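Q: Can someone sanity-check these two? First one:
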Amino acid sequence: MHMTPKQYTARASGDAVTARANALLSIHQHTIWRRTDRLLAGLLMCEWVASTLLARWRSPFAFDAGVRSVHPHVWAAFLLGGAIIAMPVFLVLRLAGHRLTRHVVAAGQMLMSGLLIHLGDGRIEMHFHIFGSLAFIAFYRDWRVLITATVVVVGDHLLRGLLMPLTIYGVQSASLWRTFEHAGWVIFEDIFLIGACVQGVEEMRGIATNRALLEHSYNDVEHQVAQRTQELKNTQAELMKSARSAGMAEIATSVLHNVGNVLNSVNVSATIVAGKLKESEIPSLAKVSELLASNQNDLGQYITADERGKLIPSFLADLANCLGDEQKQMIAEVENLARGIEHIKQVVASQQQMAKSSNVNSAVKPADLFNTAISIQGPATTTGIEFVREFEPVEAVTLDQHKVLQILINLVSNARHAVICRPVDQRRITLRVQSVRSSEGDRLRFQVHDTGVGISPENLTRIFSHGFTTKKEGHGFGLHSAANAAREMGGSLSASSDGVNLGATFTLDLPLRFVSQESACNR
């Protein structure tokens, strides 16, 4: 008969359970047999002592021709009783639990009953010892031992009933039917005891089977748990690998996003510098130099008498003023370029240091961070955006200025994009710095409020999620990385808006830690 793998496994499991149940039953039976062997060996020894004392009490001495001596019953109790229990006790000491031992013990117990009946002069009361002995032998829960005991009892009654009825029945002669009557009562008790033994073994078998099933189920569960644990470990390893890759990708996109924000302002400053250079009056200086060179032999006459020469001093003064203004503007733009490049370096360095879990805290004035973030974004005059500064006089504090600057640049950049589509007279961004008290302690609060497109209620709960954005060209990394940076510094970043086209407010709260006097002195 062909079996499927599932059927084969079920059959193999059933065979294993049966084999284990048989093993458990055998162990349990062997334990009972050994315990009962010791119990009945002790009982035999007590009966031997009791029989000797009984014989000594009932017939202590015999008199023959006026000579006093120990009665034969005492010697019979001591010597015959010792002979009866010698072999059972020996086997119990050497082979406890063995089949031969319990049959010999059962036979010895029945012979000891016969001895006690003999010492009791065959009185009917002494025959009750036989039924008690059978009950003790039933402790083995082995019906075969009861058969052995019954054969010994019936044989003892039959032989002594025929040869020495006085020792077994207390009369000089007894009918054979009396032996059958006693045997019948013994067999009547055997019927119930054998039934109890069989039922006890079945109960033990059931217990063994249930235990085997529990062990099999436990082992099966343990095996499944081990498999699932290994699967979980493998899955965890894969997730850790994926998380590491995702973390590296997130860091890379965060770096690119923050660098991109700064590059926009760098590009604006570079464009302004290039435009100023193209429109510079430096070529006019070269033309004046050519005129002066062509008239260098009579330069004084040329400047004082010639119409064109008379204009040169005033032209040079105007040119100097113009070039001075150009220089100031280009110096400012170059400084913006330098700050932007420095911030790019710091962004890259801070992302590299994240892997080392090291934060570089330094003393800085919060208002200066806002001003730097605005300057890095480029001049607001070209877009008509009005910046309103509402800065409380907060002294220098200790914080990771590059992370804070990274967050503020993101917020200011988003605010500029939000208001650029509004009419020129409504393009307003309000920047606030203040110290606040809360249940979490003193906090330093940065706020960026704009009058731009606003945020819909359903987007407020998702605006800091990775990859979420409402801008057509956005990628959703800026606010997510900014929120993570805020949490790394022990702070929080939140957003609020009254709705679409009603502006928005972003709030950065950080722990407020003023610079200590000692640190200030060291600076």
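And here is the second, same format, sequence then tokens:
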Amino acid sequence: MSKVTQRDAVLMGLSLGSYAVLVPIAIHRHEPWADEAQSWLLARDATLRHLWGTLLHYEGTPGLWQTLLHGLIRLGLPYPAYDFVSALLSLIAVYILLRYAPLPLFIRTLLPFTYYLCYQYSVIARSYALIAPLLFAIAALYMQAVRRLALTTILLALLAGISAQAFLMSACIWAILYGPPLLRAQGAERKKLAIAGLLYWCALAFFLISAWPASDVAFATHRGLANLPGLPAVARAGFGGAFTGDWITSLVVIALSAPLLWRGGGWLFFLLATLAFCLFGTVVYAQLWHFGILFLAWLFAIWISAYKTRVTVPAFLALLAAIGVQCYWTYAAIRYDWSHAYSGSPAAAKYLKQNYGPAGSPPGGLYAIGYPTVAIQPYFSGNIYSNYRGGAYWDWSTRNSGDDPAALVASDRREMALVGYKALPEKQRWADVLGLLGYGQLQHFDGSTFWQTRVFEYESFDLYRKMSAPRAASSVMMDEPAQSAQLLDGFYGMEGKSRWTARKFSVLLKAPDGSERDGAELALNLYLPDVQIQHLGPIQMLADVGGRQLPARTFSQPGEFTYTAHVPAELLQSGFVVLEFRLDKSSVGLNGDARELGVVVTEVGLEPPSRAQ
């Protein structure tokens, strides 16, 4: 880069200084949410061996961020200072951008205040905060990458260790940066490039193995090539979220920069990175906050192109348009964060400390429901929830029963229950379930995560305590609206005196008197329409209670039936039971009905053995 004039140094200093003030101001009023807490808790409560050997298989990401936090926590970093780690990393990224990017000074001084650099990847303390400093450092070294082979390779490997998206971006950079020189080089030079490349790809293999999903992972369960038809939708959402909020105007921005990318050579990286990003987001998983990585990839492509050709007027306008929109996003996000609770977790933690001391929970146990509840854990020295096992972090395996009503019903450690929810239907669902068990809401702690210009989802908490006698019934009629709260999952709306079910459905029932000694008899009254049997053939039904499978029954003919089974007494000791039913097949699109249809149910209930006989 050319020599920095005194005027340029003053303007860059003003930009850097303003950024260094604005981000801490935003952090001062920011409440960390569950994803921020999860990384902290993994770093605090897990050994590095357990983290890299087991836990990352359930996180879907390499563990460079958690490893960094692990070291900082051992050095004494407190949770209130957590967000300043991401702020410091972002400040480094902004310095590199201001000092070394071959872009017009006006653009360089404004870019730090764009949404992802000034808020989403700086105020929000997550692994993405590592991407910009590493990516910009690689861009600064780009023209010297062959000569400074060791340093650039290390930076690329570190970039790959941040997240799945950064992994893909790192691989794309290596391919265009070292692929051609490796093919052209001869002798000792080629050997040096080959050794560095081998070490780099070994590091990527290690990251890939450490983050490869476990067989029982509950995260992104619908991943697979069957999702490919959704590629256009993911691409539209990605481009819109990355640049201007609208995919059409975002494509205009990219089109304006295309001549610069073509002449400067950055087009190939941006094309490869975009394809990798969109394919991964379609086949595996995509979320709003991933979109900023596409924006950073575009900046990188413009940066490396500007080494070889002058920034054109159209490219300047493209940058200015994206900056203008995103600076408004930054303003909206910081304004919201200052005036609203981003998460209700600090208020909930404060209440629990005031009422239950350092333990954070009553003697009879605090039962946690929902992933957002993990956001409260870092405010305590250890796990405060009666239903968590191991560390205080969320378990993303299918073994986790934190969202399972059956586990709640069976628990004997639930003097109080804490519900963390992201949407109002979740709030209402658990209010209904807990109400059946005699719980009433004690406190509410409000919070909402924010995205660009709008609230994205809630991160609120409701605290419940048992206040009255349970009102769940032992038998549920499908046409009784007052009993519908006991239908937990897989039931559709009333149709006369019955309800269609999905392939899987569950119901909460009260154990009848005496069943804790003699058990009870389950009876499910159902109807199988002729068209369902014709379409599917014989249908097998299985029932499960507390992990105990009840006898299966196969229905080969249409008509009315009653599925019956004995429920052992040991499964009814808590006074309530969740019955989970599963069919081996179901129909979709039958007679134009888009729902997944199983059987038609009229009544389900438990009776004492003597009465059933």
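A (reply): Looked at the second one. Residues 6-339 form one domain. The CA atoms of residues 588 and 595 lie 6 Å apart.
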